[in-house]
Write a structure and sequence with these properties.
The chain is of the alpha+beta class and 184 residues long. Helix content is 28%, strand content 19%. It is built from five helices and seven strands; from the N terminus they run E-E-H-E-E-E-E-H-E-H-H-H. Strands 1-7-2-6-3 form a five-stranded mixed sheet, covered by helices on one side. It has a two-stranded antiparallel sheet with strand order 4-5.
């Protein structure tokens, strides 16, 4: 018995901004499911993807407060995963995935492919939305973190991702693309 999926929701895309697709599963995803899903997305849609952002509740390494403060947290979902040949540690449990699309003309094709991939890989129901879910321009936080000169020089795919006191290397994993490996 197949359930009727609610029609896809859309948000307005600001002028000059690249479109994004949000995958919103009805449950939090395990590290294993996240790894499988992201690998399929990267393999099948690499030419259309500009960046992928994973949102969800944090998986702390140490207990942040209370009587056990400072003790290690042995959460089974805080483990390394490998996506597109790059290994990184899961620091959040996946509750939402936002994929920025390189070309607006390919949006319908990408959404159809993402829906197919999600149907095969996700063990739960999900919603797919199109629109803009991250900031398309530098934020005040970006200016606090990188400074005015830094914001002008940094790759704009890194803007809007990290809070001012967090280290970028602790929060962002940069995947190696085939284009760069082939010398393009």
């Amino acid at each position: 018995m197949t359930r009727e999926r609610p029609r896809m929701l859309e948000r307005k895309i600001p002028e000059g901004a690249k479109p994004e697709v949000q995958i919103f599963p009805s449950r939090l995803l395990s590290a294993e499911t996240t790894e499988r899903l992201l690998n399929r997305i990267v393999e099948e849609l690499e030419d259309h993807i500009r960046r992928i952002v994973i949102h969800g509740p944090g998986l702390p390494k140490y207990v942040p407060y209370g009587p056990a403060r400072g003790e290690p947290v042995k959460h089974p979902e805080r483990r390394p995963i490998e996506v597109g040949g790059t290994e990184f540690e899961m620091k959040v449990q996946t509750g939402q995935i936002v994929i920025e699309i390189e070309d607006e003309e390919a949006l319908d094709e990408v959404v159809a492919k993402l829906e197919e991939i999600c149907e095969e890989e996700l063990p739960c129901d999900f919603q797919i939305q199109t629109g803009r879910f991250t900031k398309p321009k530098p934020t005040v936080t970006d200016y606090l973190k990188f400074g005015e000169k830094g914001v002008e020089e940094i790759d704009d795919r890194l803007l809007g991702l990290v809070e001012p006191r967090a280290r970028l290397s602790d929060r962002v994993a940069i995947l190696k693309g085939r284009k760069k490996d082939e010398g393009d």
